[in-house]
Amino acid sequence: MRVSSITLQQQSLNAINKTQNSLARGYMQLSTGKQILSPADDPVAYGRINRLNEYVGTLKGYNDNAVTAENNLSLMESTLDGMLDSLFRINELTKQASNETLSQDDKNVIATEIEGNLSDLINLANTKDANGDYIFTGYMSKMQPYNNDGNFSYQGDQGQRKLQVGSTSFITTSYSGYQIFDDVKNGNGTFTTTDGSVTNTGSGIISNGSVTNAAAYIQDDYSVNFVTNSSGDLAYQIIGTAQGQVVPPLPATVPDDAPIFETGKSINFNGMAVTITGVPQVGDDFGISASSRQNVFTTIQNIVDTLKTPLANSADKANYQNDLERNAAALDSGISKVLAGIADIGTSRSLVEKEQNVNSDLITKYQSTLGSIEDLDYTAAITELNNQMVSLQAAQQSYVKIQNLSLLNYL
């Protein structure tokens, strides 16, 4: 079989091109630090690399979300901590205001300080994050949650924004103002007590009461009315809107069987207990009804209004104490809500940290696996590159000699 000069030259050129391609690939490997540059190098390994890179990218995205979540949660926590300072101060001032020796000027001074704290609370409730979004307005992040106009009605919704920080973990990154500041039960959380205010003429003061037997508790609107029994003693009866006469229990009659009133003695019925101190008058009445929602800002404004109301007589003083005690109890409930919010945020921050650690461990593991598959062995790569360069030189020199292989050169 005869091999022509042209064939020899073409084979030499092919060898040169092949070696040049190998050199180019070697240089590319050295510049990237990767031994697998395309699916052609190793289709199976290339597929594994893509999947591992996708996993790592997803985990890094989760950790980016975790950083955002941590920033938002930290802002909310510090904001609520700041609000607690004002709430505790208002609580302290409210207790001071219950001192019967205070003059009206003293009460006005206290009211002014409470108003200042209330303004601070509203400003904190309207806190924005780094993106200019309100943190306590649910999904309506551009809507200011509260106006400092004495109304204090919540303007947002009850949504909670969330971020995914793990394959199955979503962290709440915003709370609605309704959840923390509005969804607060007045009274003792189950029922609230009120006095007849304008109609009462005595000095009776009713406590916030408590549930003594949850199984026996019957929700209703009750009225504690003061009467004179057949013996001329001050007595009381309790009537429920739905229950009818509760005390004295039927078939007892009023006023003959009405129990005698003893100041400070517990009044127990239908699984609940209240006490009335002072000296009520015949015709005075006190209400007991189910607790309702009252936002903490309204509660504080009620305390301010109570402090600013002048007292003309013993009945006014009793109404003043009743109002203070009722709103002080609601304020305690509001403080408890804020504390619960801080606790929830603390739990969320712990979960974020946990997920970050899990994600980081997985990223390290996947990157280690990636390295074992695609990272270049520089020593071996440089040795191979040098071999390819020698091969290229040999191929080029061979090509030059082959070009001169012609009979014409010897004629």
How does this model look, in words?
With 411 residues, the chain is of the alpha+beta class. The protein has a domain at 191-291. Helix content is 51%, strand content 12%. The protein has a 5-stranded antiparallel sheet with strand order 3-11-6-7-8. Strands 4, 5, 9 and 10 form a 4-stranded antiparallel sheet that branches. Strands 1-2 form a two-stranded antiparallel sheet. It is elongated. The chain starts with a helix and ends in an 8-residue tail after the last helix. The model has no long low-confidence stretch (mean pLDDT 84).
Radius of gyration: 41 Å
Mean pLDDT over all positions: 84
Strand count, sense and closure of the main sheet?
5 strands, antiparallel
Low-confidence stretches: none
- Care to count the β-strands? 11
For the largest sheet, list the strands in their spatial order.
Answer: 3-11-6-7-8
Q: Which descriptor suits the 3D outline?
A: elongated
State the end-to-end CA separation.
24 Å
Helix content: 40-55%
Indicate the proportion of strand residues: 5-15%
Please work out how many helical segments DSSP would assign. Answer: 7
Derived from helix and strand composition plus strand pairing, the structural class reads: alpha+beta
The arrangement of helices and strands along the chain is HHHEEHEEEEEEEEEHHH
Q: Concise description?
A:
The chain has seven helices and eleven strands. It has 411 residues and is an alpha+beta fold.
Which SSEs are present, and which pair or pack?
Elements: H1 5-32, H2 43-97, H3 104-125, E1 162-164, E2 170-172, H4 177-182, E3 191-195, E4 205-206, E5 210-211, E6 222-228, E7 234-240, E8 244-247, E9 266-269, E10 272-277, E11 285-290, H5 296-308, H6 314-374, H7 378-403
